[in-house]
Amino acid sequence: MHRPTTPPPGAPPYTRELGLLRRRCHILREKVWDMNDRRERFEARRWVEGHIGESFLTASADELRRLEGYLAYKLKHGHCPLHEHDNSDIRYKKAGGSTDARNRIKEKLIEMFGERCVDCGKSGIPLTLDHIKPIALGGKNELGNSQLLCVPCHVKKTKTDSRIAFKRHFAKTFPEKIAKRRALAAERRTQKPRSQG
Hints:
The chain is built from seven helices and two strands. It is mainly alpha-helical. The chain has two domains: 11-81; 95-189, His-Me finger endonuclease fold, CATH 3.40.1800. It has a two-stranded antiparallel ribbon. Helix 1 runs parallel beside helix 3. It is elongated and about 65 Å long.
């Protein structure tokens, strides 16, 4: 079973209340994600940072109380209360992203460019339809924004796109935390390194 490590430097001072909150959040988090699976653990970390702006270990008591509510709600309903009115399926279909529309785009791309991955150039392997500019970054479900990628190339591109989308989301949702982190980074750069000896 995955257990949180020692809090990093800069984490809030440990108190009994903070410890109990961390433990309750930890239990809820393990019910939502399999923390022994590297991919799910990464998803859990991103989800937590995207919802409270802090990692699980550096969050304050207020942030952990909020996180506990979000996790309990997600466990019961499958999503947190912040996304109660989201309907990604409808939004996606309105933008022309139905299965039929995607299949038509894929067939058109094969007709135009052949059945090969545009990144590595391999052919005769399963191909997936990819958005050149991701939907999360404002891209559209249309032919001009689509390309064919093999699964490994698609996974690699999606990781990069997800990182960019997450950074933009974080900067938009938690501007004060970005400013604080930049100030701390600038302060560290100006500090003289300790002499060794």
